[in-house]
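Each letter names a residue; the fold follows as tokens. Both lines appear below:
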Amino acid sequence: MNWYLQNSNNGDVAKSSRIRLVRNLNEFKFNLSKKEEIEKLENKIKENLYSIGYGLKFLKLQDMDEITKQSLVEKNLISPEFVKKRGKTGSILINDEENIVIMIGGENHLSIQVFSPGFDLKNTLNLAIEIDEKIGNLLGYAINKKYGYLTSSPADVGTGLKASVMLNLPGLSKTRNTRRILETITNFGMNIRGEYGGNLQENEEIYQISNKQTLGITEKEIIENLKVIVQKVIEQERQARKMLTKNELELEDMIYRSYGILTNCKKLSYGEAKELLSNIKLGTDLGLLRELTDSKVQKLYLYIKPANLQKYFGEQYEVLEREIKRAELIKQIISEK
């Protein structure tokens, strides 16, 4: 089972953890733009692919159809910007479990990413460092004794490490405490982004929290600082959920109305499905809705998304067809034994 479908530690609030390490190779100039330069970088990596190991496979973005590329974006495995800017020249290394994904030929030569379900920064970092050291020994990184790893953006110089945790915060949203909490996080020097790394949208409930500082600080300090902030947010979210349960009738009514629509509708847009599923997950986490398991909720979160919905059925659909198929898929997953 892929990591994003697994139950996890603190999974009621923390959806996933990611460690990203950006690296550049010594023998190549920064910000590769010419096709032949990027192909030379790719060939260097392919020559060493077996030695890198971890079951990684080399895939070029230009060889993927649009739905496949968008399905990877929806899983947060590659960034929308990478697809937009490097759709014809970029490539990735990816394993079958999809918990290791390395973007090649983007803003930096390599963006090494390791993912895990829930809130597990320590083990995720350990695996990322293990992979990073192996690739560094094989390919040779651009590094400076004073400044650390050299990158195309000053924001990444030093460790080149971006640690992030994806959080689901319906309690804070419904009690209207999200803004206060997020302002506090920003004051502690953390980045806050939406689900796919972009600017926050109105009525957002899923947030990425990550470190800003990469220079003059160790990997361990980055992780410890982020852990403290995330733990505080998780505590605040759980307190907000307790506040919601004080009006249990209203809360249960909202949850079961959402469940009723999901199980009986004939068509459903992605936006509405996402909102209804958020209510249902809240009900499942609080033990108020017993008709669904955590694993089914995780599966629903993935396959209601447009590209992954089409991957699930193995067909390409227009908007209305997707809405009909989404309703069909939801009933299928909920009724699974």
Q: What stands out?
A: The chain has 13 helices and ten strands. The radius of gyration is 21 Å. Residues 283 and 289 are 5 Å apart (CA to CA). The first strand starts at residue 14 and ends at 23.
